[in-house]
């Protein structure tokens, strides 16, 4: 053996040296690709496969074709509510972008201690959503919750409290989600405002632009990269909403706060039995909803790549 | 600078700005101030309906003492540490390699692989849930810290690679060429030329991933159960059912759970923000 390997080893070495630049990237990529394939890429395919089956997670899978999807789209009221709630999340969550912009404009000054102010404003984003959900649910409590108390001052009352009332519960959760998300958008805009070209601003000022006109025509175009990232992370955040719902209402009252991600989890792992096939079908629908945006993001990034070289 | 710098505005606005600033901050942080206040209140305050007023006595030590000595919280915290630290190391190491390969070399499929990492990173968790849970059970890692770590490393590698690759791409390429002319082996170029220049990116990703993983709740619920492997985010819900309606303890527990990423943020603020902006906003 030893005799046989020595010569091959030396030719291998020569071959490797000659092709070093072609081979090295693949050597560096083996491990990351392997991890990513096993835990991300392949599972996506598997979920598609599972969605064509009826499966309790333990026994044999029974092939049912498109039956899961048929049931989803024709007679599943819970799915309809979840999907509709997802759209509400998508639209209302985007409010984080203008709100973040507004706060960043407010904070973009150089007074004493402003750095500390900026970091304190960013605080909510660093905190776990589980904690955020918990605190907001106390705010919303009927009778003694701070929000309820304040509403009381104006003579308003929400039956059952914000989270106990099917008409308001989802909005209450979205408001809680907007808090950290606004902080995120704020920090994006603050860094963006730092790199706004001061000469352009001065020139525009000399031309008489100010206030809202200046913001719209001079500042916002320069903030485009920040807006793009804010848009990406907000859309993803909206479609990933799970923690807050799970902590604040657990899908209730009467299932009115379910979104697809939560409903999927419920169907697949709930105490009422594991319906993995049906859950996978919900996940696939959510995936396609997200894919729409993913394709858009990738397309924009691709344009950048082409533009850059 | 926009908006107009405060020094250049009227005296009245300057003063009002200085007054408004702290007020807005207090309103913005009201939820946090409330929890902090809750966490030092005695039990009796809640029974007496004193929810939002000042604490009637200072119970910091007894409340936090209960969290640390009479519950599973220390165990959960430890689990979180054992989940978060290896994930940070693993994800940063893997993505540094992937970022180097994708940022330095031109080869067929480069952009395709890069986009695969990005796209995978945006995917909803739920489409991975059933297969990943299955895989974790079948390799005997369900309800273990390692099971969570392996998944987190793999998933975070997507996001980190996006960041690393863009960072490496922006490095001066002549440095690498010079090393090549000198006959330095490629892996040595990675270790001794590129890696030292990547320190800011490594730091940014490390703090960011630390926060993401520490705050993860979904995968903690899917891949673990009970105090022997669950991190603090999942533990806090169990803690809360143990102390139902004991708001002072729930608050103290929440603060303990939330503190490590907050501390991380304050210590490494600059890097943290560089990471959040994905390196795209300078």
UniProtKB/TrEMBL annotation, chain A:
Family membership noted in the UniProt record: Belongs to the binding-protein-dependent transport system permease family.
Tagged with keyword Lipid metabolism: no
InterPro entries given in the database record: ABC_transporter_permease (IPR051393), MetI-like (IPR000515), MetI-like_sf (IPR035906)
Keywords, alphabetical: Cell membrane, Membrane, Sugar transport, Transmembrane, Transmembrane helix, Transport
Location, primary (coarse class): membrane
ABC transmembrane type-1 domain span: 86-299
Protein name: Multiple sugar transport system permease protein
GO terms under cellular component: plasma membrane
Organismal lineage: Bacteria, Pseudomonadati, Pseudomonadota, Alphaproteobacteria, Rhodobacterales
UniProt subcellular location: Cell membrane
Keyword Membrane: yes
Topology term for the membrane: Multi-pass membrane protein
GO biological process: transmembrane transport
CDD domains, alphabetized: TM_PBP2
Annotated transmembrane regions: 21-42, 89-108, 120-141, 169-193, 214-238, 277-299
UniProt cross-references to SUPFAM superfamilies, sorted A to Z: MetI-like (SSF161098)
Pfam families in the cross-refs: BPD_transp_1 (PF00528)
């Amino acid at each position: 053996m030893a005799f046989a390997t020595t010569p091959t080893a030396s030719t291998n070495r020569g071959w490797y040296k000659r092709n070093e630049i072609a081979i090295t990237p693949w050597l560096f990529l083996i491990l990351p690709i392997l991890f990513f394939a096993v835990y991300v890429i392949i599972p996506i395919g598997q979920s598609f496969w599972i969605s064509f089956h009826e499966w309790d997670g333990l026994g044999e899978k029974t092939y049912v074709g498109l039956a899961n999807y048929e049931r989803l789209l024709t007679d599943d009221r819970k799915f309809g509510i979840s999907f509709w709630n997802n759209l509400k999340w998508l639209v209302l969550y985007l409010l984080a972008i203008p709100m973040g912009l507004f706060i960043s404009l407010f904070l973009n000054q150089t007074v004493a201690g402003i750095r500390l102010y900026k970091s304190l404003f960013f605080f909510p984003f660093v905190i776990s959503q589980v904690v955020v959900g918990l605190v907001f649910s106390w705010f919303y409590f009927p009778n003694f919750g701070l929000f309820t108390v304040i509403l009381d001052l104006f003579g308003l009352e929400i039956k059952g409290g914000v989270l106990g009332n099917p008409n308001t519960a989802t909005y209450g959760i979205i408001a809680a989600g907007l808090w950290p998300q606004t902080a995120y958008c704020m920090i994006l805009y603050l860094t963006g405002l730092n790199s706004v070209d001061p000469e352009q601003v001065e020139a525009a000022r000399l031309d008489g632009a100010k206030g809202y006109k200046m913001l719209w025509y001079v500042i916002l175009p320069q903030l485009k990269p920040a807006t793009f990232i804010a848009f990406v992370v907000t859309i993803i955040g909206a479609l990933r909403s799970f923690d807050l719902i799970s902590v604040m209402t657990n899908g209730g009252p009467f299932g009115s706060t379910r979104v697809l991600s939560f409903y999927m989890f419920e169907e697949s792992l709930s105490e009422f039995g594991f319906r993995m096939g049906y859950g996978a079908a919900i996940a696939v629908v959510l995936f396609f909803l997200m894919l729409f945006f993913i394709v858009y993001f990738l397309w924009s990034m691709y344009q950048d790549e082409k533009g850059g070289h | 600078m926009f908006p107009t710098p405060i020094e250049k505005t009227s005296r009245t606005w300057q003063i009002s700005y200085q007054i408004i600033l702290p007020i807005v901050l207090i309103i913005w942080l009201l939820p946090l101030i409330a929890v902090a206040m809750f966490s030092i209140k005695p039990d009796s305050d809640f029974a007496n309906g004193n929810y939002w007023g000042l604490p009637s006595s200072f119970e910091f030590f007894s409340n936090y003492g209960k969290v640390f000595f009479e519950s599973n919280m220390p165990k959960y915290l430890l689990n979180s540490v054992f989940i978060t630290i290896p994930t940070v190391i693993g994800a940063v190491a893997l993505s540094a390699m992937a970022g180097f390969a994708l940022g330095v070399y031109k080869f067929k499929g480069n952009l395709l692989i890069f986009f695969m990492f990005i796209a995978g990173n945006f995917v909803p968790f739920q489409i991975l849930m059933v297969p990943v849970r299955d895989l974790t059970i079948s390799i005997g890692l369900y309800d273990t810290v390692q099971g969570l770590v392996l998944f987190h490393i793999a998933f975070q590698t997507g996001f980190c690679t996006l960041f690393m690759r863009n960072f490496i791409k922006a490095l001066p390429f002549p440095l690498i060429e010079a090393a090549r002319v000198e006959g330095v082996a490629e892996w040595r170029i990675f270790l001794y030329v590129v890696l030292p220049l990547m320190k800011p990116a490594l730091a940014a990703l490390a703090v960011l991933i630390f926060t993401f993983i520490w705050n993860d709740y979904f995968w903690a619920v899917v891949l673990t159960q009970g105090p022997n492997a669950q991190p603090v985010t999942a533990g806090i819900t169990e803690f809360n059912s143990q102390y139902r309606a004991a708001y002072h303890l729930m608050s103290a527990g929440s603060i303990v759970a939330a503190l490590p990423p907050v501390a991380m943020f304050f210590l490494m603020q600059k890097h943290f923000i560089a990471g959040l902006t994905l390196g795209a906003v300078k």
